[in-house]
Amino acid sequence: MTDIRAHLDALPGVDPRAPLLEVRDLHVEFRTRDGVARAVNGVDLRLNPGETLAVLGESGCGKSVTAQAIMGILDTPPGHVTRGEVRYRGVDLLRLPEADRRKVRANRIAMVFQDALSALNPVYTVGFQLAEQFRMHRGMSRKDAKQRAVELLDQVRIPDARRRVDDYPHQFSGGMRQRVMIAMALALDPEVLIADEPTTALDVTVQAQIMNLLAELQQQRGMGLMLITHDMGVVATVADRIAVMYAGKVVEEAPVHDIYARPAHAYTQALLESIPRLDLKGRPLNVIRGLPPALTDIPSGCAFHPRCTYAREICRLEPPPAYRIAPQRIASCHFVREVLGV
Amino acid sequence: MSDVVLETRDLVKHFPISKGVVLKTQVGAVRAVDGVNLQLRRGETLGIVGESGCGKSTLAKLLVGLEKPTRGEIQVRGDDLTRLTGTALRRARRNIQMVMQDPYTSLNPRMTVGDIIGEPFDIHPDAVPGYGKARAVRDLLDIVGLNPDHINRYPHQFSGGQRQRIGIARALALRPEIIVCDEPVSALDVSIQGQVINLLESLQRELGLSYVFIAHDLSVVRHISDRVAVMYLGKIVETGNDVAIYDQPTHPYTQALLSAVPVPDPRLRGHRDQIMLEGDVPSPADPPSGCRFRTRCWKAQPHCADQEPRLELRQRSSHPSACHYAEPRITTRHY
Ligand SMILES: Nc1ncnc2c1ncn2[C@@H]1O[C@H](COP(=O)(O)OP(=O)(O)OP(=O)(O)O)[C@@H](O)[C@H]1O
Ligand SMILES: Nc1ncnc2c1ncn2[C@@H]1O[C@H](COP(=O)(O)OP(=O)(O)OP(=O)(O)O)[C@@H](O)[C@H]1O
Ligand code: SF4
Ligand SMILES: [Mg+2]
Ligand SMILES: [Mg+2]
Asked: To test the ligand 1 pocket, which listed residue (A26, A27, A36, A61) has its Cβ within 8 A of the most ligand atoms?
């Protein structure tokens, strides 16, 4: 175990002062018969140890594709990373030799998926699938690996772990399977955990259990957590910082309190206003007019302009630059000042 | 009582569990809906909430006649649907229609939008207005905010929100008084959800419709509902107007459910006292004795295992609550 860590620490370009994970100018496109879908169009993200970064956005805006590109599990073809960097402690994974890249991803960056059932193999017991990781990546004996599997299931609070380790995925409830998925992801003690809608398929009471578990494990281990979600309630409950995505771009990034108190991008503002609120009962809900764009045909200038109430001529003509409006806040909107009301 | 348009009495649906392939023997039953009494008044929206598998969709299907009840009554304007047959039944059924959850799969991909919306007229030819089916369908498209010229398009040419409008137009075709909406916006993004909710509300005002509105998003349900019923394992455990349920819930399950909803306001972080329920929902094939919530309830006493609590007014609950120890809980506001 220590040799892998030492090996990774000695990779050329490792910079102890660099962010744990940094995505720069990431572009991903899907080349299909219907044309080229530009799913990710210049995403910038940064994740620090012990931090929870929420990636928020509506369906199809490129959240999962961004995560897949980071993990190196993009569906290729039709998906291609056409530009950008994915840096782990300063080392660009996209330019690392295949063997090293695999080692980093297997050992340091892990992912939890929305649909636990399809991410687990139905024909093996969960214990076998967990133990397999220790045997493959840590060279443990069968017996030791199984022992570690039981410990992990215990850590994610599967009751009676010693017995349940021999059960198959379908024998667990939805919430339990998601715990098993988390155990799987944490097996090799990663520094970065990417959770893609980990609770979207679950009931609220179970969602609360899983989010608490994730937060607790993250604190114990000082992991960086990148939480992908479209649920503004979940974000408000667990995130330190938020990156809001629209049509394949991060349009606003800010600490959680700032963004809910005073969004700086017209889209973020419209999104927050569309949440049903008590004072709107008996009145129409606020909606964002129109639809998210087709990725084969992204509007010119600011991609949000056809739906935006602030939009003027310039929004159609020029992509807005990323304005740094505070040390930790960035918003790409021509009318940041109007949106902020300053 | 005359304004009650829909009422169920002790409505039950058990799905048999059988063993064996050739000689099937019933070894048990999934008690999906297990004694539901509800009332819906004219022009009112009754919200139904509860976790996955508690029986919401089964209840919806019973109401519109897609499932046959094992027992109980469904009264629509005084007629018991479970006893009617033939023409009388078809006529009564016209009055209660359904909008389904999934705008991506609930519409037949090989039918044009015009055929989908007009199909109810083929089943009920006597419901076609004098000016003809084609015109009726165009009017329906217009009512739900779609372009009547798109009558010959196919479902895949519409977005999710638009497809949900198609489903609503279809439900409106026979001019029902009651529409049962089973998770009508769950598959949609928040910004689109609002468009569909606003449409449902304005149709209700204009046409005097009554809704049974099923959803798992508690804030959406609060927005649209006049009254709310909370279900757990096939039963309604608490019911009341939206203020009673959201601000003064007295059933421990409702209290836990509300406390688990993440609130979109980071200032409340750490200031809400959340009730963490342990364990999973028991199987509806083998529900606990007495109170079905007792296996996860922090207030459970031995009495709860012996005696089933009825859904009724209680000393410390001014609205019906099915808990022996029903009482308000002092907490930070949920919404
Ligand atoms: N394998 C693929 N082939 C073709 N297009 C794809 C593929 N995977 C994703 N895309 C496209 O890329 C775009 C971004 O998809 P992505 O899954 O990242 O969205 P998302 O933000 O995760 O949405 P959701 O909230 O619905 O999960 C979508 O328009 C999608 O259709
Ligand atoms: N046709 C069927 N045969 C057997 N069991 C069924 C059938 N339909 C539903 N059930 C069972 O009845 C119970 C209630 O299901 P139902 O679909 O009504 O729940 P629900 O509250 O709508 O859940 P969800 O929120 O997931 O939609 C579940 O245990 C389900 O597995
Ligand atoms: S740049 Fe213009 S269109 Fe884009 S978000 Fe800002 S105001 Fe709206
Ligand atoms: Mg996704
Ligand atoms: Mg359902």
From this structure: A61
Is the peptide bond prior to B109 cis by the omega test (within 30 degrees of 0)?
no
ipTM for the predicted complex comes to: 0.86
Q: Write out pLDDT tens, residues A280-308.
A: 888 999 999 888 888 888 999 999 999 99
The residue among A48 and A206 whose pLDDT is bigger is A48
CA B319 → CA A209, A284, A295, B256, B297, distances in Å? 29, 28, 50, 18, 20
For residue range B73-99, list pLDDT tens digits in order. 999 988 899 999 888 888 888 999 999
Q: Which residues lie closer than 8 Å to A312 by C-beta, 6 or more apart? A: A334, A335
- B197 to A57, A255, B262, B315: CA distances (angstroms): 21, 31, 21, 36
Strand partners, B326: none
Rounded to whole angstroms, the maximal C-alpha distance in chain B is 66
In a domain? residue B287: yes
- Percent of chain B surpassing pLDDT 90: 64
Residues of B in contact with A176 (CB under 8 A): 280
Indicate the average pLDDT of chain B: 90
pTM of the model: 0.90
Chain A interface includes B282 (CB < 8 A): no
pLDDT, tens digit, 9 for 90 and up, residues A72-119: 889 888 999 999 999 999 999 998 888 888 888 888 999 998 777 777
Do the domain assignments include residue B314?
yes
Minimal CA–CA distance to A298: which of A30, A37, A34? A37
Check CB contact under 8 Å for B260 and A207.
Answer: yes
Range of the domain at B302: 251-335
Report which of B12, B61, B31 is spatially closest to residue B282, judged by C-alpha positions: B31
Residue B8 has pLDDT above 90, yes or no: yes
Q: How far apart are the first and last CA of chain B?
A: 33
**Residue A282 backbone phi and psi in degrees, to 5:** 85, -5
The partner residue sitting opposite A58, judged by closest CB among B189, B220, B265, is: B189
User: Binning pLDDT at 50, 70 and 90, where does residue A2 land?
Assistant: low
Residue of B nearest to A173 (CA): B280
What domain count does chain B have? 1
Average pLDDT value for chain A: 90
B32 CA distance to ligand 2 middle (Å): 6
Task: Nearest by CB to B276, from A175, A209, A286: name it.
Answer: A209
Which protein residue has the closest C-alpha to ligand 2 atom 31? B53
pLDDT-derived band at B335 (thresholds 50, 70, 90) equals: very low
* Dist. CA A31 → ligand 3 center (Å): 28
pLDDT value, residue B1 = 46
Residue B231 forms part of a structural domain? no
Distance CA B83, CA B60 (A): 18
Contacts of A208 in chain B (CB under 8 A): 260, 262, 274, 276
Q: Find residues 132-171 of chain B whose CB sits inside 8 Å of chain A.
A: 159, 161
Question: Of B219, B266, B281, which is closest to A256 when you measure between CB atoms?
Answer: B266
Mean pLDDT of A25-52: 93
| H/E run at residue B222 | helix B218-224
Indicate the pLDDT class of residue B138, thresholds 50, 70 and 90. very high
Nearest chain A CA: its distance from B124 CA (Å):
34
> Quick check: is B114 in a domain?
no
